[in-house]
UniProtKB/TrEMBL annotation:
This is PNPLA domain-containing protein. One of its GO terms (biological process) is lipid catabolic process. Residues 132-181 form the PNPLA domain. It comes from the Eukaryota. GO terms for cellular component: membrane. InterPro entries: Acyl_Trfase/lysoPLipase (IPR016035), PNPLA_dom (IPR002641). Pfam families: Patatin. One of its GO terms (molecular function) is calcium-independent phospholipase A2 activity. Keywords: Hydrolase, Lipid degradation, Lipid metabolism.
Length: 376
């Protein structure tokens, strides 16, 4: 919601209130963890699909949706967003990105973290591919709800989902602390130069013990509980690694996670009581009051970065997604999106002779496009 739909924090909280009710308010009568055991997950994955579709509907104009803006890939220039999921390959499709030297796809791989990207990520091209490079390729042109389903598919809670030749959500609980994955992703895209990272902020959902996922007496359940336990420790492990990297690479890294003593971690993943959201807010505020200095420091870096970017001539694109195209009749470049107003003015002046400045202004107005997807 923050990244792909570019919503404000307040709008996100507002949507979460509706969304959590739409999803967690409708558990199945019988499931893995209900008094009457039934071997299926607690919630129907359709609930997420519908809830997310409703958010997209509320937060995007009809014109944007018509132009395919309801998909996860983002118009160029806008905020890059990543969603993590846990994937298992289900075919031996040899056209996949990953190859060994003898050109066989590595489909015997077990479940591994998978990134859904709103932007293109071209791989380093190194063979064999580095294991830290996750499924490079073009941006994911799939509906936003599919990315949401893939990242929320978790044993006991939501059904698995198949997208293209991968199955999501069966192998475990995925990447709970993706800070290190993000660090790798961004440095890989910037020529393996960690100094290109101006700030890395990791926000947790509250330190917790295993209690967030209920115990069960079935063997399968035990496997998942072990996976969940491992994940809780992995999450802290990642934090420790990042702390070390921060020293080594001088990456400004901050992790905010409400400690166990404030109680947030005791709230179940799908708890939906009349006061759950208020409790979340209260515990988080209590914690935030203890870390004011660090929060201010991070806010200052963010404000400085934004100020710097606002001086760039790409600011109009970055802040609004606006792009420009030539609308002069019979121009062969009408399908080409230009990132800056000045690019269109330059084109109008050089490619179309004898346009008066008022004509040029008219064409600039006519050729200003809302956030658009690439035409390819
Ligand atoms: Zn033209």
């Amino acid at each position: 919601m923050l990244g792909r739909l570019r919503m404000s924090i307040n709008s996100c909280i507002e949507e979460y209130r509706i969304l959590s009710g739409d999803i967690f308010g409708h558990p199945r009568m019988a499931h893995f963890r209900s008094p009457i055991f039934w071997p299926r997950d607690k919630y129907d994955g359709k609930l997420i699909e519908h809830a997310v579709e409703k958010v997209v509907h509320r937060r995007m104009s009809a014109a944007e949706r018509e132009l395919g803006a309801g998909n996860f890939n983002s118009p160029p220039g806008l905020c890059r967003t990543v969603v993590f999921a846990y994937a298992e390959k289900i075919s031996d499709d040899k056209t996949e990105y990953r190859y060994t030297e003898d050109k066989k796809s590595i489909d015997q791989e077990g479940s591994s973290p998978y990134l859904f990207r709103s932007y293109d990520h071209w791989g380093s091209g190194a063979l064999p591919q580095s294991i830290t490079e996750r499924n490079p390729g073009p941006a994911h042109n799939i509906p936003i709800w599919q990315a949401a389903r893939a990242t929320t598919a978790a044993p006991f809670y939501f059904d698995t989902i198949e997208i293209s030749n991968r199955k999501f959500g069966d192998g475990g609980f995925g990447t709970n602390n993706p800070a290190q994955e993000m660090y790798n992703e961004v440095s890989q895209m910037k020529g393996d130069d960690p100094s290109s990272i101006k700030l890395l902020v990791s926000i947790g959902t509250g330190e917790s013990s295993i209690s967030r996922i209920e115990n069960g007496s079935f063997k399968k359940a035990l496997g998942y509980i072990n996976a969940a336990r491992k994940l809780a420790s992995d999450s802290e492990g990642v934090h420790k690694t990042m702390e070390q990297m921060k020293e080594k690479w001088e990456v400004p890294y901050h992790r905010f996670n409400v400690p166990l003593k404030f109680g947030l971690g005791k709230i179940k993943l799908d708890e939906l009581k009349h006061d759950t959201l208020e409790k979340i807010e209260k515990d988080t505020t209590k914690y935030c009051n203890t870390i004011e200095k660090e929060l201010e420091l991070v806010a200052q870096i963010l404000v400085d970065n934004r100020r710097n970017r606002s001086k760039s001539d790409m600011w109009s694109l970055v802040s609004t997604g606006k792009q420009y195209r030539c609308m002069v009749k019979k121009c062969r470049r009408t399908q080409e999106l230009l990132p800056r107003e000045s690019d269109l003015r330059e084109h109008l002046k050089t490619a179309h002779e004898n346009l008066t400045s008022s004509k040029i202004n008219g064409y600039v107005q006519l050729g200003t496009c809302p956030p658009l997807h690439r035409s390819v």
